[in-house]
Amino acid sequence: MGQVLAQLIPIALAVALSTVPITATLFILLSERRKATALPFLSGWVIGTAAGLILATLAAQALPGRPRQFASLIENLEILLGSALVLFGLVTLFRNRRRTQRSSWIEGIGSLDPLAALGIGLALNLRPKALLLVSAAALSISGGPPGVDGSDTLILILVYTAIATSTVVVPILATLFFPDRMEPRLVVARDWVSAHGPVVTGVVVILVGVVVLAAGIA
User: Burial, 98: exposed, middle or buried (Cβ in 10 Å; 0-12, 13-18, 19+)?
Assistant: First the structure.
């Protein structure tokens, strides 16, 4: 299982450092309705992340072929996904040079009702980058050593979900429990993420793409 974790953790970190859910979280927490929207958004993000990996893993494990053919197919898919992630990271860096404006829906996310916040938390897992990353994570789990059984797979999914959602879960819970201490930090974090978040995301996605690509080649 250690071999799978070595591939899975970088992918989970790439999800955790994604600019869109972090920025959405910061705008929710700096809004007047954070008590109504923060927990539903958190729930949608966590549930969507875990459910996405479960479904992707089941789909990967259902791929046809004998064990040798299955391993070859997983390797080819990892090479394809790794290449796509590297390309996506490069596009992210290039787009950041040309566009610095935030999406209007992010700025207004704090005014949504709880059900809409839950829906957005779920929907953020359907972004192209999120789908690429969860597919890479599912292939890492499905292509692991034969000793990885059902209970190990569950542990891997829980570890991935905990890491991938940590940058949303931790600030939301910390702000709900310690609002006065967190508010100045949230403002600083929002400004920093707005200025540097896309660059960090692009670099991390490229590095993860290289890891996935190397795993497929190896």
Answer: exposed
Confidence check: pLDDT of 56 > 60:
yes
Cβ atoms of 53 and 161 within 8 Å: the answer is: yes
DSSP E strand stretches across the chain = none
Chain centroid to Cα 31, Å, comes to: 24
pTM of the complete model:
0.83
**Integer angstrom CA distances of residue 96 from 15, 64, 189, 191:** 18, 40, 18, 15
Number of Cβ within 10 Å of residue 65's Cβ equals 11
Q: Mean of the pLDDT values across residues 75-92?
A: 87
Q: Round to whole Å and give the CA distance between 208 and 18.
A: 12
Q: Which residue in this structure is represented by tokens 């490229």?
A: 206
Tally of CB atoms within 10 A around 71? 13
93-110 confidence digits (pLDDT tens):
777 654 545 556 677 787
Residues 6 or more apart whose Cβ sits within 8 Å of residue 85? 132, 133, 136, 205, 206, 208, 209, 212, 213
Domain locations along the chain: 2-217
